[in-house]
């Protein structure tokens, strides 16, 4: 199956040419065969599993560069965790931070 991406619809892809890139691949990529919730989880353990799922993907670098150009607000993209449009080492858990982290 071929996927045609219009460079006018994908920010950052229309840098030099107006010809739409064509990628041919099947939809057995790791992110297409896994529950998508894991890539947008609030659990650090699940996010680490999602990063591991991205490891062998042949489109990992393209996924990461696309997510960076789009400033993806959240999720695991190209094996990296995004929060507020930037790559982060770990995602801050939802809710108010503890006043005394040592009291956990």
Structural write-up:
By secondary structure, the protein is of the alpha+beta class. It has one domain. The chain contains 2 helices and 5 strands, in the order E-E-H-H-E-E-E. It has helices at residues 44-54, 60-70, and strands at 2-4, 22-24, 74-77, 80-83, 86-88. Strands 3-4-5 form a 3-stranded antiparallel beta sheet. Strands 1-2 form a two-stranded antiparallel sheet. The longest helix has 11 residues, at 44-54. The model has no long low-confidence stretch (mean pLDDT 81).
The count of domains is: 1
SSE topology string:
EEHHEEE
Question: If you average the pLDDT, what whole number results?
Answer: 81
Largest sheet: 3 strands, antiparallel
Helix amount: 10-25%
Shape: elongated
Structural class: alpha+beta
Residues in β-strands, percent: 15-25%
Rg over alpha carbons = 16 Å
N-to-C span = 50 Å
The total count of helices amounts to 2
What is the total tally of β strands?
5
What oligomeric assembly is this protein in?
Answer: single chain
Strand order of the main beta sheet, please?
3-4-5
- The stretches of 5 or more residues where confidence is low (pLDDT under 50) are none
Domain 4Fe-4S Wbl-type: 30-87
GO molecular function, one term: 4 iron, 4 sulfur cluster binding
Keywords: 4Fe-4S, Disulfide bond, DNA-binding, Iron, Iron-sulfur, Metal-binding, Transcription, Transcription regulation
Pfam family, one: Whib
């Amino acid at each position: 199956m071929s996927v045609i991406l219009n460079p006018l619809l994908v920010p950052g892809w229309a840098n030099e040419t107006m010809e739409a890139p064509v990628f041919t691949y099947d939809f057995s990529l790791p992110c297409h065969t896994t529950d998508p919730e894991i890539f947008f989880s609030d659990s650090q353990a699940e996010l680490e599993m999602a990063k591991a799922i991205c490891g062998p993907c042949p489109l990992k670098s393209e996924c990461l560069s696309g997510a960076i150009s789009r400033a993806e607000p959240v999720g695991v993209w190209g094996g990296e965790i995004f929060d507020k449009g930037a790559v982060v080492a770990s995602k801050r858990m939802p809710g108010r931070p503890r006043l005394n982290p040592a009291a956990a």
